[in-house]
Amino acid sequence: MSSIELTPSQKSILTALTNLHRQAEDTVKGEQIAEEVNRNPGTIRNQMQSLKALQLVEGVPGPKGGYKPTANAYEALDVDQMDEAAAVPLVHNDELVDNANVESIDLSSVHHPELCRAEIHLQGSVRDFHEGDEIIVGPTPLSKLRITGTLDARDDSNNILILQIDDMLAPAEEPAH
Fold first, then answer.
1. Which has the closest alpha carbon to 80: 121, 128, 140?
2. What would you report as the CA-atom Rg of the chain, rounded to the nearest whole angstrom?
3. What is the C-alpha separation between 132 and 53, in angstroms, rounded?
4. What is the DSSP string of 20-57?
5. Can you tell me the distance from the alpha carbon of 109 to that of 116, in angstroms, rounded to the nearest whole number?
6. Are 12 and 37 in contact (CB under 8 A)?
7. Whole-model pTM over 0.70
8. How does pLDDT run across 46-82, given as a tens digit for each residue?
9. DSSP SS3 for 81
10. Whether residue 8 has a cis bond before it, omega within 30° of 0
11. Which CATH class for the 8-76 domain?
C-alpha cells in the first residue's frame, strides 16, 4: 500500500483511536476520541468520514458501536502490530505504567554528553506525562539497557516522550515493582 499523507489533525485523531482501541479492545466512541484530542465531537465525526474514505477507520453502528482502526491505520501511522511484543518496563515517577508499551527508543546526540536525549516511542497515550517527570525505561529484552531520565518534552500526536538522560545502564536488572 502506498503511504497516505495525513493532516496533523487526522494523524492526531487516528493515533488517539488506535491507542484507545488497544486499551479497550473494543469499538471506541467518538466522544472518547474527542476528549483524548481535546476537540469537539462534531469535528471528530467529520474527520472520521474522511478517515473512512481512506479505509483507515471502520464505523460500527448501534448502541455498542463506535470506531475501529483498520490494519491500514496502523500502516499509515507506521505502527507495528505485534501479537506478542516483548514488554519493556516503563516507570513514571516511581509508578510502573501498565497501559503503555515502549515501541522503540531513539538515542539522539549521544556524542554530546550534556545534550544527550532519548526519544521513547510509546504505544499508548502520553497525555499523563509532564515536563520534569522522572522516567525509567527498561531493561530492554536483548541488551538489558535501562535509561533513567527527566521528561524534557512530549509529542502527543506521535506518542513520543523526549528525555534528558540522567543515567544509562546495561545490563540492568528487572525493576523490583
1. 121
2. 17
3. 41
4. HHHHHSS-B-HHHHHHHHT--HHHHHHHHHHHHHTTSE
5. 5
6. yes
7. no
8. 999 989 998 999 988 888 888 998 888 878 877 655 5
9. coil
10. no
11. mainly alpha
